[in-house]
């Protein structure tokens, strides 16, 4: 059994958390969130305000790429996902991508301004996240298209064979988003 471990990635602030899972003939148990242990290992003390749970009935449900104005700790309660995180913050790392397969034994911490997305790899996947701010229709959200050619994310299941929302299909490309952000900073 692995120890609780936190690793850095090529995206500043994006962390991978290896979570020990204890199992026997009855099932398994994991300490999904343990503030003091995780802070001691390098997770920011980000003060989550709620826990959201997404149930995804089918394999291939794909959501994203959404960057919210808050940090979030993402964990899987059941099933597996392919996660793609894109740094959408202005600077040298803009457009850098990290991908992961997340199951019950691996979580990620996504800093505000990084776009997160995922694709379910198993039926009945339960995806959970802890943000440190409440959703608001007036917040500054950033979106980029899942199929953007510049990002070239290697989705395990082709996007023409998955369940996508109309909204996610129509997000701007990375080039369009770059122009929007440049215009915003010039104003």
CATH class: Mainly Beta
Q: Which structural class do you get from the secondary structure elements? A: mainly beta
Mean pLDDT: 95
As residue ranges, the low-confidence spans are none
Q: Give me the count of strands.
A: 13
Biggest pleated-sheet summary: 6 strands, antiparallel
Shape: globular
Give the strand content.
Answer: 35-45%
Distance between the termini: 53 Å
Write down the CATH topology.
Jelly Rolls
Q: Given the structure, what is the number of helices?
A: 3
**Would you list the SSEs in sequence order as H and E?**
EEEEHEEEEEEEEEHH
Give the CATH architecture: Sandwich
Number of domains: 1
Description:
The chain has one domain (5-186): Jelly Rolls (Sandwich), CATH 2.60.120.10. 12% of the residues lie in helices and 36% in strands. It has helices spanning 35-40, 166-169, 174-186, and strands at 5-8, 15-18, 21-24, 27-30, 52-56, 62-67, 72-78, 81-87, 97-102, 106-110, 114-120, 125-131, 142-143. A 6-stranded antiparallel β-sheet has the order 1-2-10-7-12-5, with no helix packed on it. A 5-stranded antiparallel β-sheet has the order 9-8-11-6-13, with no helix packed on it. The longest helix is centred in the last third of the chain and has 13 residues, at 174-186. It is globular, with a radius of gyration of 17 Å. It starts with a strand and ends with a helix.
């Amino acid at each position: 059994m692995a120890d609780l471990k936190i690793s850095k990635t090529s995206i500043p602030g994006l962390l991978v958390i290896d979570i020990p899972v204890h199992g026997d003939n009855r099932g398994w148990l994991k300490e999904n969130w343990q503030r003091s242990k995780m802070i001691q290992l390098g997770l920011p003390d980000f003060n989550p305000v709620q826990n959201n749970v997404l149930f995804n009935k089918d394999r291939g449900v794909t959501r994203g790429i959404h960057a919210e104005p808050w940090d979030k700790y993402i964990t899987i309660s059941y099933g597996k996902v392919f996660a793609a995180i894109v740094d959408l913050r202005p600077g040298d790392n803009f457009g850098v991508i990290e991908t992961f397969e997340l199951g019950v034994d691996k979580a990620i911490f996504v800093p505000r301004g990084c776009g997160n997305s995922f694709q379910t790899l198993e039926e009945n996947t339960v995806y959970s996240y802890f943000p440190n701010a409440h959703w608001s229709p007036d917040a500054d959200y950033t979106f980029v298209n899942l199929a953007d050619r510049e990002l070239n994310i290697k989705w395990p299941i082709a996007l023409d064979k998955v369940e996508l929302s109309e909204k996610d299909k129509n997000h701007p490309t990375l080039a369009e988003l770059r122009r929007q952000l440049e215009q915003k900073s010039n104003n």
